[in-house]
Write a structure and sequence with these properties.
CATH class: Mainly Beta
Shape: globular
Number of strands: 12
Number of domains: 1
């Protein structure tokens, strides 16, 4: 389904339908308790300020979560919660993949910049943003997913702005959900 107008109401209605139809859903909660493993060409660590910078073909994994990008900057607050910013990668896009909670399905996303805040369970994708769950898909210039509240915001402009006359549009594709097969008609020949 492609939205006909980029109004906030239309976006909210489409995202509500997307959520109700089982679009992008909760990430695997057990991932939070798993260790973070990172591979990169270069690592810079600032223990005093709790900042780690990973550069060059970065691959970050934590449980079922994987992030591929050119650069990942991870900061940690006083309470031990981490925030991460992934930028660049193949085609200029950072990518992530994570298993959905209690399902044998995966969520894949990409954008020029992906930000994640573990404390608030908030994921933001900036510029050329796209998220897929199964065959359902949403794309725009900005995607905000609040994992705690399971709410979405997608806009056709940067940083949650709407550009009414912009060339880009928010696009949402929702596949029909499988239903039980229809009963076969009775044999009309009387046999």
């Amino acid at each position: 389904m492609t939205l006909a107008a980029p109004s906030r109401q239309a976006i909210c209605l489409a995202l509500l339908a997307f959520t109700l139809c089982g679009g992008i859903a909760r990430a695997e909660r057990a991932d939070r308790d798993k260790p973070v493993n990172v591979e990169a060409d270069r690592v810079t660590v600032d223990d005093k300020n709790k900042v780690q910078i990973f550069e060059g073909r970065v691959k970050l994994t934590q449980g079922t979560l994987s992030i591929l990008s050119d650069k990942v900057v991870v900061t940690q607050d006083i309470e031990g919660f981490q925030k991460g910013v992934a930028t660049g990668g193949q085609g200029g896009l950072a990518r992530f993949r994570q298993k959905r909670e209690l399902k044998d399905e995966w969520v894949d996303g990409e954008a020029e910049r992906i930000e994640y805040d573990a404390k608030t369970d908030l994921v933001q994708l900036f510029n050329r943003a796209k998220v897929r769950s199964g065959k359902d898909e949403v794309d725009g210039q900005y995607i905000n997913y609040d994992g705690y509240n399971e709410t979405y915001l997608v806009t056709n402009g940067p940083n949650a702005t709407v550009e009414p006359n912009g060339e880009s549009r928010v696009k949402v594709t929702i596949q029909p959900k499988k239903t039980a097969p229809a009963a076969k008609p009775a044999n009309s020949t009387g046999r």
